[in-house]
Structures are given as structure tokens and as C-alpha cells.
Amino acid sequence: MTATSLRLVAHGRTAALRRARFGGNDDGLDEGGRRAALALSPAGPDRRALLGCTDVCLSSPATAATQTAYALGLTPTVEAALADCDYGDWTGRSLEEIGTEQPDALREWLSAPDAAPHGGESVLALRNRVGHWLDGQRGLGRRVIAVTHPLVIRVAVVHALGLPMATYRQLDVEPLAIVQLTDHGSRWQLRLSAPLRSGPATGDAVVGGP
Question: Helix, strand, coil proportions of the chain in percent (round to 5)?
Fold first, then answer.
């Protein structure tokens, strides 16, 4: 079985992220987010400096994710499993609004991963969706770049390393953050590395899953 190398990339900043709104799949990158993504894309024909070689680029259906991929010099294929959480009735609304109008529902959502008071998808259901997709990447022997959402990346790491579900709250994923996972048979490894250079990488830190 050939190992799969997977780089999860958080899409660039959007108005929804800046305003702490739930969802916002129709939001494209704002000007700052677009500039930041373009700044990470090498100007020359060799685009390996940031993300390394890739066999396929996958993307959430969200506009911000596909725009980020193109800004990085990649050609994405949309993958529904990488979509953001379905926030139901809260989609497009701010955390502050929900906290004011539905404080008990918000507390429930924040404290219980299996809760979906908005009528959409719970964080646990999101983890199960993303985890099923992640498990399907094992043994394919591909170098995959997947541009998606911060919460998707957080639950992917929880699943890959077999962490307690509540741990997702302790993981912060910034716009354009990159998380590398490599499958090693029965487990994934989380690799934290320096930016790629033309020579061999050194000093990589590796965290293994169970």
C-alpha cells in the first residue's frame, strides 16, 4: 500500500471570517485575503516552494476555497466532503447575534459536539463526514492538496490523530494555514515542517496518531 501525502490548506480571509459569521459559502475572498493568497504563490513556473509537488488539488465547493486554490496557482476539483459545516438557520448570522437572541442554543452548540440547535449539521456529524473522506484517501499513493475551511481542518486533525472530540475547540486554524498529514498504514502522522526549499527539508517535527 502506497502512502498518501495530504496538505490541508485553510482558505483565505473573507468578510464572514472577519465578522465571525456562521457559514458564508457564497463569500469570496476579501481584498486582503486575495492579496495574502497571491503573495504565497511563486511568480515563476516552479510553484513548489510553498506546497511542494502535487498530483491533485481538491477544494470545498465554497467560493473562497476555489478562489484560494487558483490564487495559489492550482487548478481545483470540487469535493463535496470538504464543504464547511451546515449551520442551518444560523448561516450568514454572526456569533454575536446568536449569542444575544439564542444564548442557550449557542451554549449548547459550544459545549456539546453532537448538538445542532440550528437545525443543520453538528460538529460530530461534520467530523464523521470529513473522517470518512479522510479514511478513503489512505493507500491511494497521491500527493493531495485540499483547500477547505478552518473547522473542517480542525475536525480532520481530531479524526486523524484519534483525539477526544472536544479537542477541536483547542485547535486554532488561521486563514491560509497548512496542515500536512501522511498516512502510514493504520495511522496518520501530522507533520509540522519548515517552508519547502529547493534542497532537502531538515528539522521536521512529526506527531503520530494512534
Answer: 40, 20, 40
